[in-house]
Design a protein that fits this description.
heterodimer, A: 233 residues, Arc Repressor Mutant, subunit A, 2 domains, five-stranded parallel sheet, four-stranded antiparallel sheet, 8 helices, 11 strands, elongated, B: 618 residues, alpha+beta, Helix Hairpins, 4 domains, 16 helices, 12 strands
């Protein structure tokens, strides 16, 4: 993992250089490309484990490049783009990208996301192959009902019993929205009365533990005015 | 071949020649007729075969014979003997006395003669009984006085022969005149076709004379024609009289000097008149060809001017310089006033029934114009409205494009700045340099949040924003937001007091954006409140509206109005801090509006109040 090769694709050479430095510090090998076509060429000649891809590039844009790469490889792709609309993010992810980071990004957050994607990519096989009925897997999250173990991209995370129960409820129904009352009744096993704040505070705690950027959560999402859900991945 | 013919026929010289020829032919024709009149030819012989039926016979034989007989009878005392050289027989009877030159003084004598056809009434003599004789005229007076005239067959046969001779001598003239007439007609038709045309093109060329109004042309032509005809007829009559005098005096058919002069004079008059008439006629022809005959008339012009004047009140010309709404108002007033005048005129014309129809007819035209041009104006307004809407949409689109581009152009260098500052912070740096790098890092993140806020605000105010509207519980959203911000609330040292309804308050909105609204508002309240005071958040349902009020006591003097605080980028000077973009309240307002809510800021002394209203979903 420490020797993973990362392909950085951005038409802005300074940004590509900065990312190269950043990732080299973390011990990765970095290859640079300045447009989609170069990126496709680099993939042929190199063994790459992860791609950081800009969208607005000359010759071949990031979205088309993603589609081309996905025809052959399933290596993680993180899109880096100045386009910050929700619709852009949804489009990028639906084209086959694994993560979407908006420019300007926090370098430490980017590194964290890179690590997370690599871990997932490396250990995904293990998690899936265990085929254990007591194991809940959503994206990079895995929850073991028996051992009460919770892992994010293969890294164990300590959750309190209440937090674990909330995650168990949400992860066994990914994509489904639960209201605070429902969560409270199922987790606390008590009648819910003015519990919004209690549940919200727990959700926020969990986010701080499992999300790379709690302000832009990837898994645990608030559906404002309705409830909470785990994003289906 | 066709073009050559066209070239020749349209040449000016051809046309002039044709015109002159026409004038000459017509003049020759009328002069011939006049000449024949001079020579005393009986034109009647052309139409009447039998001399006995002609008016010539009646005037020259019957009338003199009758007069003579009457004279004889009335002057019986003086005239005792009947002249023997009479070429007719007569028989007059007053019932008792009979006067006759017939052999046996017997009425039966006349039965050998045929009956006369042409027996007009003569003064106090009425046509009466007759016998079956060929040349017999039988007159009766007052039922008791009867006259019978008879011409012998030999005499009549001789006259008939003379009659036929006259006809034969006239025949060549008739043929000549007929030929001339056909020729003239042909030339006129030719001129009618070629007038106004030129060799080089197919355009219709108008003359200067064509500018004269049609009526004047027609009247001038008519006057000239009447004058010419009158002169002709007058001369003709005069000629006949001269001829009669000549024949009476036994003079030959030779023309006298005065007659020759009068013929020359008449010929000149005819040439001038025919030339003038020809010019006028061709002018009318050109006008007809140009379809201007009716339009370019005085009456039509006056009619058109009046119509145009009336029309200009309704089709927008008269009130052009006024603003549209004013012009429409004036048009309406004009319609009412004109209609009123027309109604009044209808009543006035009650005394002149034929004119009563005029005002309603004008009124119909006025209504037609009023409706038609109003409709057109409305259509134009509609069109202009659509265009301006399109224009607005286009400019909005361009604005969004600009925002997108600028945002991209800002974000890209900012990415480099942030990345390199991060790399810089990993280098071995002196204490001072590290402080500087920290400041750079902090400011670059602030710049990032400003750019992001600016982009959000610009997108939402331009209207190009994808909303995810769904039914949500506003109460829950406020509680979630408060839970989400629990840490900030705790560290602020302020207390939040909420007064929310028991049950859910459902509204239709975009949850994410509404969360930003409340996040920004609570954030502002935490930032700018006086230490130790409370922030109040209230939600209630009033008349189908969900009304949320957030109020706090400002920690500084708010020397600005509610409008000023909502102005983008503006913040009370004293409140300027280093954190935030200053766009929080503007974003809150803009997002509330795009989500379909109302956003009101109320400043009352130190009390700062934001009121948000949404329609409650049933």
């Amino acid at each position: 993992m420490d020797h993973a090769t990362i392909l950085v694709v951005d038409d802005d050479r300074e940004i590509a250089n900065a990312i190269e430095k950043l990732l080299t510090f973390e011990g990765y090998k970095v290859i640079k490309a300045y447009n989609g076509l170069e990126a496709l060429d680099a993939l042929v000649t190199n063994d790459v484990q992860l791609i950081l891809l800009d969208i607005m590039m000359p010759k071949l844009d990031g979205l088309s490049t993603t589609l081309k790469i996905r025809e052959k490889k399933n290596i993680p792709i993180i899109i880096l783009s100045a386009k910050s609309e929700d619709s852009d993010k949804i489009l990028g992810l639906s084209m086959g990208a694994d993560d979407y980071v908006t420019k300007p990004f926090n370098p430490q957050e980017l590194v964290a996301r890179v690590k997370s994607q690599l871990r997932r990519y490396m250990y995904l096989g293990d998690m899936r192959s265990s085929n254990n009925s007591s194991l809940l897997v959503v994206g990079g999250l895995s929850l073991n009902r028996e051992t009460k173990e919770f892992k994010v991209d293969g890294v164990p995370v300590k959750l309190t019993p209440t937090e674990f129960k909330i995650m168990e409820l949400l992860m066994s129904n990914p994509g489904i929205v639960f209201s605070a009352e429902k969560i409270y009744e199922r987790v606390w096993q008590e009648e819910a009365h003015s519990v919004e704040n209690t549940v919200m505070v727990h959700i926020r705690r969990i986010r701080e533990k499992i999300e790379i950027n709690p302000k832009e959560p990837k898994y645990l999402k608030v559906v404002w005015g309705i409830g909470y859900k785990i994003e289906k991945c | 071949m066709d073009t050559r013919l066209k070239n020749v026929s349209r040449r000016k010289s051809t046309k002039v020649l044709a015109f002159i020829l026409t004038v000459i032919i017509i003049t020759t024709g009328v002069l011939l007729i006049q000449y024949l009149a001079f020579t005393g030819r009986e034109f009647e012989s052309l139409f009447l075969e039998e001399y006995k039926d002609s008016s010539h016979f009646y005037h020259n034989h019957i009338l003199p014979a009758r007069n003579r007989v009457i004279y004889l009878i009335q002057n019986k005392e003086q005239v005792t003997t009947t002249p023997d050289d009479l070429n007719y027989y007569y028989y007059v009877s007053d019932g008792e006395t009979v006067s006759t030159n017939a052999a046996d003084e017997n009425i039966e004598f006349f039965e050998q003669f045929g009956k006369g056809n042409n027996s007009p009434e003569i003064e106090d003599w009425t046509y009466g009984e007759y016998t079956d004789g060929n040349y017999l005229y039988h007159y009766e007076r007052e039922g008791q006085f009867s006259l019978v005239l008879a011409f012998p067959d030999e005499y009549m046969a001789a006259e008939q022969e003379k009659w036929e001779n006259t006809r034969e001598s006239l025949m060549p003239f008739v043929i000549i005149i007929g030929t001339l007439l056909i020729l003239a007609l042909g030339l006129i038709i030719f001129l009618t076709f070629v007038t106004g045309r030129k060799q080089d093109d197919d355009e219709l060329h108008m003359w200067r004379i064509d500018k004269i109004y049609t009526e004047i042309l027609v009247i001038a032509f008519g006057t000239l024609f009447a004058l010419w005809l009158a002169i002709g007829i007058d001369l003709f009559g005069y000629n006949m009289e001269v001829q009669l005098f000549n024949s009476n005096t036994g003079t030959t058919n030779q023309l006298g000097l005065s007659q020759i002069y009068s013929l020359i004079l008449y010929g000149l008059v005819t040439v001038v008149m025919i030339t003038l008439m020809g010019i006028l006629f061709l002018s009318m022809v050109r006008k007809i060809k140009a379809k201007k005959f009716m339009k370019h008339s005085l009456i039509y012009t006056i009619y058109f001017k009046i119509k145009d004047f009336l029309k200009s009140f309704f089709d927008g010309r008269r009130f052009e310089k006024f603003p549209l709404t004013k012009a429409l108002f004036y048009r309406q007033m004009a319609f009412i006033i004109v209609s009123g005048i027309l109604v009044a005129m209808t009543f006035l014309f009650i005394f002149l029934p034929p004119f009563m129809i005029i005002p309603p007819l004008i009124e119909i035209a006025v209504i037609y114009w009023y409706v038609k041009y109003n409709n057109r104006t409305y259509e134009e307004i509609n069109k202009g409205f659509d265009e301006s809407l399109q224009e607005q949409m286009k400019s909005e689109r361009m604005k969004v494009e600009l925002i997108t581009n600028v945002s991209h152009d800002l974000k890209t260098p900012l990415t480099s700045i942030i990345s390199y500052i991060d790399l810089l912070s990993k280098e071995e740096l002196s204490e001072t340099a590290r402080d500087y790098v920290n400041i750079l890092s902090e400011k670059s993140y602030r710049l990032k949040s400003i750019v992001s806020d600016l982009f959000d605000l610009a997108k939402s105010t331009s209207g190009d924003i994808n909303l995810d509207l769904e039914k949500l519980d506003l109460k829950k959203l406020i509680e979630q937001t408060l839970g989400d911000m629990a840490d900030e609330i705790d560290t602020s040292g302020l207390q939040i007091r909420t007064r929310l309804p028991e049950g859910p308050v459902y509204i239709k909105s975009d949850g994410k954006r509404l969360y930003r609204v409340f996040q920004n508002l609570i954030d502002n309240a935490l930032k700018y409140s006086l230490k130790g005071t409370r922030v109040y958040i209230e939600l209630e349902e009033v008349n189908g509206k969900a009304i949320t009020v957030i109020k706090n006591i400002a920690g500084y003097e708010m020397d600005f109005t509610a409008e000023e605080i909502l102005q983008r980028f503006s913040r009370g000077d004293k409140s300027r801090t280093t954190e935030g973009s200053g766009l929080g309240l503007s974003i809150a307002e803009s997002f509330t509006k795009v989500c379909g809510g109302e956003f009101v800021v109320d400043i009352d002394g130190d009390l700062f109040k934001v009121i948000i209203k949404f329609d409650i979903m049933k």
